[in-house]
Here is the input.
Amino acid sequence: MKYTKLQNKIIIEDLSQFNIKQILDCGQIFRYYIANDSLAEVVSENKYAQIITNDTRVEILTEDVEYFERFFDLNRDYTAIKNSLSNDKFLSPCIDFGYGIRILNQSLFEMIVSFIISANNNIKRIKNSLNYLSKQFGEKITTNIKFNIVNQSPISEQYKGVLCYYTFPTLQQLKRATIDDFAKAGLGYRAEYLYNTVQQLNNQWLDSIANMDCSQQLDSLINLKGVGEKVAHCIMLFALHQTEVFPVDTWINKVYNDLTNTKTSNRKAISKELTNRYKHLSGYAQQYFFYYYRSK
DNA sequence: CTCCAGGGGAGAG
DNA sequence: CTCTCCCATGGA
Here is the structure.
């Protein structure tokens, strides 16, 4: 995809491969806010960006252009991916609907925390919990360039007309949290899972995951408390761009039963079958399905 | 009141 | 290995 990098801005004029609402609402990220049709904002780790959309172009406003170039996966050709998948009769309408979806490259630690919290939870509460943890254990950053002030934003504030935001906690910062702190964040019974995992994690282990193959990554992640197959798949897909996995949640389970006229609840078997069907493009297919059926 | 939310752990078989 | 039941919490 063609795009232009400037000092504090990335300009995208090919709107057939980038739709910010679709990218943010397809279930891969929780720390964002869509203010209106033309303005959205995102926090990832300690970085912040605003995405401004109009009829002919998208502008990504940020203090770290290189970070968000990778974050939004801008170097990948999504037209080729969509073409490969569009022969599938189940997927074709989903791709037409979510034509501008891209799979983000997010932080491994942030995805581990986020998807442990996501288990048997709803998206609104997941977002609230993650923003709460960022406020309690992250760092408040005052921006140095001119951003738009976003009223009622859950992820940014203004101080004397300057925009501020809270970073996602680092591993070291979150190690200071107690089980009770996590309970106050609204995690319920997941508080203990997250506490155990955070205490167990170290940076060397996190770095080692990237060099493993797909099955090794799955085995390693599943050993963490609160991480089962579905959560591990999400972590692998959204942090490691491991697209040969098919996360099966309640929505995908419903979609599968709907399309195949079955009523199974064996998510592991569903995942295996769908991965066999979509191969190395499974992760993309999953996102098109999820966005399409969840939007209806 | 019950049911559900981007499921996983623990125990039983 | 697979199957079942339970898990905190808040909104519908």
